[in-house]
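Is alpha-D-glucopyranuronic acid placement plausible here? Inputs below.
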Amino acid sequence: MGSKKIVGLTLMGILIACANIFAQGNMPDPLTMSDGRSVQTPTAWRTERGPEILELFRKYVYGRTPDKPFTLKATVAEKSPNVFEGKVSRKQVSLDIRHEGKNLAIDLLIYLPKGREGKPVPVFTLLNFGGNHTTHPAPEIPLPKSHVRENYSPPEKFRGAKSSRFPIEEICARGYGLVTAYYGDIDPDFHDGFANGAHGLLDAQNERRDDSWGAVSAWAWGLSRIMDYLQTDDEVDHDRIAVLGHSRLGKTALWAGAQDERFSIVISNCSGCSGAAISRRRKGETLKDINKNFPHWFCENYKRFNDREEELPVDQHLLIALIAPRPVYVASATLDKWADPEGEFLACVLASPVYKLLGFDGVGANALPNPDTPLFKGRIGYHIRTGKHDLTSYDWKCFMDFADIHWGASLSRK
Ligand code: GCU
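Reply from A.M.:
I modeled the complex. Tokens:
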């Protein structure tokens, strides 16, 4: 089949999907309050509709993160000023987070470009799936001390195994830094009855309610703790910290970015169901699938909407809208049908009116772009890459081009 035909079919798919969705008449409008009032000013968005949507996602989807006091201590565990032939410096920092006598350790791996004459570095922050040692073969990077899933065991076998997802040299050559941590340090990715990780740290026993936080919320909380640390690191540009995530960690990046405005760019890669994709389409993974296969990711209330997506008072375009007016980028892949690329793009289209209300262009298109043709028109960026569910150097190139545009133009250079 020629590429024109594929694109034509996809475009038709989007149009039909839009028609179906609006015909259903139950797609939540970002600019209409639950009580029917219309949201017509930036102030009404900031003070009423935005907080209302955030509360709905807490109550029905990701769960409520406990608002409890903690202390955070950072210790530099290792520093190598000359890696990658002296072009990059590496730093490993251990975060020790404490609450009522309990503690949680998160190990950060940080790469920064050299030769910036002391200027703070804009960075991309992303969690990894298998441990920091999977991002690069260097023996100085320790194996994780927290629980590791079967597909990354035994850990030593996976040293450097995911380096294609972390093109450190390319990132640093463009003047950016990379901050990563193992998501299992924050919360384990299996149903442990919410006993360990951030849940074990902050939850009181027998405290679980239908809107209590799941693992995605815990990982997002961890990203905010990493942000707490980055705000104290003088080598990092505190106004230019992006959060990025792939797959389940793409869902996490969107939720972290929606809640924590210190992330000045938010990037979701192949995030799919309960990430960027519109749930009401029921294409690829559905709420029933995700709640059955990953019962620990979301709150208990979310399960009420299995096969009843149209009753959910939110859909995922509203999650993207919560990031407005900050720049957000959504990336899909042509073969990643499970993540519903058309649904991910549609969410960008449906979030765009909020950007307009706040004075910016959203995604700036109504039709799915051709593969490998990124949309950089407004503050919602989008591309669909040829290929499978993955995070590649092509995706990184697009994210960095997007960051060049927004961090270069919208914030004063330091
Ligand atoms: C599964 C899951 C997805 C998720 C993905 C991942 O495929 O169904 O929702 O995004 O795992 O995180 O790798």
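Short version: Confidence is low (pLDDT under 50) at residues 1-9.
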